[in-house]
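Crash report, auto-generated. Payload:
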Amino acid sequence: MSTTETTPDQSPEHAGTGPAISGARIEFDNVVKRYPGQDAPAVDSLSLTIPAGEIVMFIGPSGGGKTTSLKMINRLIEPTSGTIRIDGEDVRTKSVDELRRRVGYVIQGGSLFPHMTVARNIAIVPKLLGWDRARINERVDELLDLVGLDPAQYRDRYPRELSGGQQQRVGVARGLAADPPVILMDEPFGAVDPITRQRLQDELLSIQRELRKTIVMVTHDIDEAVKLGDRLLVLEPGGRLAQYDTPENILAAPANEFVDDFVGSGSALKQLTLSRVSEIELTQRTTARVGERTADALARAKAAGDAAVVVLDNRNRPVGWWFLRQLRSETIGAGDREKLVTVDERATLNDALDVMLTSSHGGAIVTGERDQYLGIVDFDSVTDHMRAVEQQAAAETEAAAAAAADAGAAADTEAPA
Amino acid sequence: MWDFIEDRHREILYNGFQHAYLVVLAVALATVIAVLLAVLVTRVPRLAGVANTLSAIGLTIPSFALVGLLMPATGIGATSSLICVCFYAVLPILRNAVVGLQGVDPALVESARGMGMHGFAVFARVRLPLAWPVILAGIRVSLQMSMGVAAIAAYILGPGLGSYIFTGIAQIGGKNALNYALVGTLGVVVLALVLDLLLLLLGRVTTSKGIRV
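Recovered output after restart:
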């Protein structure tokens, strides 16, 4: 796919009808990211052009390198090789701080600074850019208005006095503060309830209609991607571009089996909400006890070929899921059980996939009664299960058809008698 | 007892002031040192254990012993006292500063960097204010402890109320021995309470309303 060419009708000079495009074009040119100590690259020769003024959604399973790709745009992560250009200019030509002040950055939950008021949170980048106070105050009120919060009421509040949805709105306002041409969003609506999420999505679309920035958003939610994206970038595990196209084209003509599996035709998606985790055969990974010697756990994990261990407390409840490289202390530490996301065995596969996609382990810990550890559900077991269900369904329809045909044939043979 | 105080009230006030001055100076210095060390420790995760062990060991050294050890190196007088008090004052603050800085959500730090804050701004405007309540708790512990240590440091002719305690001990059995010891001890206690109250007020003023408990 030749995606490095510019799309002529989308360049800022040809704004056409509607509000002028204030966004900038972003080009990835053969970008590779390889983390030290890992054989497979996280992002593998990614080349694409994001036209100015569009929303592009990066979507894929965890390990697909979507967040890595996003963070390479504002150089929170530096590519191993290749070039990223914003409006034709290599992102490495200016200083990293200068670049970041021109690229809005919004992350999950808004990530507001709890010790600053709403107004000060929004004012961060304008202050770094040296705007005068009057201009900053005016801008803060304008932005609060834009995201649907009454400035007089919310300007001087602290983040903890806001609901999750309001915090996220302020986060978006903060990202827009210095009117950057490009805004990066890393799963911005991942931490709010579905109803609020839907409202925030709608608001973002209406803001975008007005501003026409270039927005790059990482999501794990295919519905969100289809809803918000002018284009979707589907990444395969190993950070390879699987497909880059409009949502309509991707849904109608998936480029390969992976994309087909990932976006899921309607029936498969429905299947996810119909099946429960308990119907799936769980895989067992290396486990360790809190307080156990780390060396012992490492040895077991290496023998089993696992890259991570599940840490259980004395009541058999999972408290942590650590990559081997994270295990540095002498004995296994307790970790925070509250922070570990697990799925109950009665959860739907849809929920489980949700957890799996946000987990960096490509799986989810399954718990049973009283949060006791049962095993791991991973992508393979889910897809296997769905395939089995599909085959069963196909076999059943076939059998039904055959039975009908048999009956018909029997009727035929009987008829002359 | 009352006559004793009345006869010497100017001197007692002066010594009390000196005592407070020594402690405040030492704790202020210790705060700077501890926070700098904590920054270093949080940069290099392996140092965290070392720092904790060292501060645990440091606290087991009897202050009287340290005073004795410092004497040949730095002589007698105010400087030695300051070093001695400062040494102990660093330990609780360091511990809390490490915990406080480690407790700052990495997502906030990344978010700050992603908005184009440079390294020092991230520290001064995000990490330090967020860790501040925890650090301040360490400072309060440190201040209380330093009050006692400063009294011991009077043994090497440091300034402050400790000299009354040592005079009392030296004159044991004498007419004013108990008065000396009591004035020294009670003075330290009262001063400690007053300074703690001031710190509490300082904490109110310097901790953002957004993170106040």
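Post-recovery validation: The interface with chain A takes residues 45-46, 105, 107-108, 110-118, 121, 126, 129-130, 208-211 of chain B (CB under 8 Å).
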